[in-house]
Specification:
370 residues, alpha+beta, six-stranded antiparallel barrel, globular
Length: 370
């Protein structure tokens, strides 16, 4: 599920669940299955979002029925009928009455799962895991371009993102800024910039580890190699679609690792079914069950069709965190530009794998970059 706010009673939220035409007005439930006795109606499906050319976006808007609103409606239903109620109000209350008959009173539940990526027997992602992981996500701005990033060290003020997010700005000496999880916008400098297929960059923010501007921020923890397996459920976190001034909280979309490319002890490319969008670039890909950092969201697929080049938002690629392992190995001492040059030494098969995805073009010319 993708949420755009952390307030107690949001009016609208977005989900990566697939809703077909004709489902507008249908209830949205929290729980493993709608028939689950613990399922709670939390919203109503709204008409799909579309792009200017008429194509549907892969995010479904839902009108939120906040638990406190639902509880108040349930209380009204138990009271004597009020003949002064309008027909519209009666219809709304009758909808809640139907939901109240099907479901028990609201309670704390796990995030709703996407029917496209989760089996009926799968466990829902623990909300605490999602909230902790979201607190490691930052928004990176380079001139008029923005993307996502993840905090990898508070002690040294290090943020990991995609190289293509800042590549052009770095060439023109454009200033960079990072919006920390607490909302503070701070200047940043480029410490290291990847090249070729290694679409990664390390930024440094001049904020001391004990500075109050870090309040609430979490540091991403790299996943262990044994957990990077086919079929593992993952979340992509970041700031897609909406301009920075229109969103304060990162999105979370869900899916699974479809392909782990590379030797068992050295993955070089991750293929996922997680929906990603422009602005997702540089955001963390984390394990749904633990929040551990698996990789950095890098690109989505584009396919040639009779209608031209079409984006496949549900076919995405990520740079495995293990290609950047030397970064974490140096955290016990000051990380410098020179100390990160070892990251450029990557196995030849890694370049071949990424060339199959992105072609032979230069990093900044790859059309599938977010």
């Amino acid at each position: 599920t993708t949420t755009t706010t952390t307030t107690p009673s949001p009016l609208l939220f977005l989900t990566d669940a697939r809703c077909l035409p004709g489902t507008e007005g249908a209830p949205v439930f929290l729980g493993t299955q709608p028939t689950d006795s613990a399922a709670v109606p939390v919203g109503i499906v709204l008409p799909a979002l579309t792009q200017p050319d008429g194509r549907r976006l892969e995010l479904q808007p839902v009108l939120c029925l906040a638990p406190d609103v639902l509880a108040r409606c349930t209380v009204l239903l138990r009271a004597p009928a009020d003949t002064s109620r309008s027909a519209a109000a009666t219809a709304v209350l009758d909808t809640h009455q139907l939901a109240a008959q099907v479901c028990p009173p609201p309670r704390a539940c796990a995030l709703a799962s996407s029917s496209s990526s989760r089996s009926p027997s799968a466990q829902a992602t623990p909300p605490a895991v999602v909230q902790t992981a979201l607190q490691s996500v930052v928004l990176v701005q380079a001139g008029g371009v923005w993307g996502s990033g993840v905090v990898v060290s508070r002690d040294q003020g290090l943020v990991l993102t995609n190289a293509h997010v800042i590549h052009r700005a770095a060439q023109t000496s454009t200033s960079f800024s990072v919006r920390l999880p607490g909302g503070w916008v701070v200047p940043a400098t480029v410490l290291w910039l990847g090249r070729g297929f290694l679409d990664a960059a390390v930024l440094r923010v001049d904020v001391a580890a004990d500075d109050s501007r870090w309040q609430g921020a979490q540091v991403a923890r790299p996943v262990s190699l044994t957990e990077v397996v086919h079929g593992a459920e993952v979340l992509a976190l970041g700031f897609p679609l909406l301009p920075p001034q229109q969103t304060r909280a990162p999105f979370a979309t869900s899916g699974m690792l479809s392909v782990v490319c590379g030797p068992q002890n050295r993955p070089v490319l991750l293929h996922t079914s997680v929906p990603v969008f422009p602005g997702s670039s540089g955001g963390p890909l984390v394990l749904a069950r633990s929040g551990a950092l698996v990789g950095i969201v890098t690109s989505f697929a584009q396919m040639h069709t009779s209608r031209g080049l079409e984006t496949q938002c549900r076919l995405s690629f990520a740079l495995p965190v293990h290609l950047l392992q030397p970064l974490w190995q140096q955290m016990h001492r000051p990380v410098t530009k020179d100390s990160l040059t070892c990251l450029h030494r990557q196995p030849a098969f890694a370049q071949l794998a990424w060339r199959a995805v992105c072609g032979d073009g230069a990093l900044e010319d790859v059309p599938s970059k977010l």
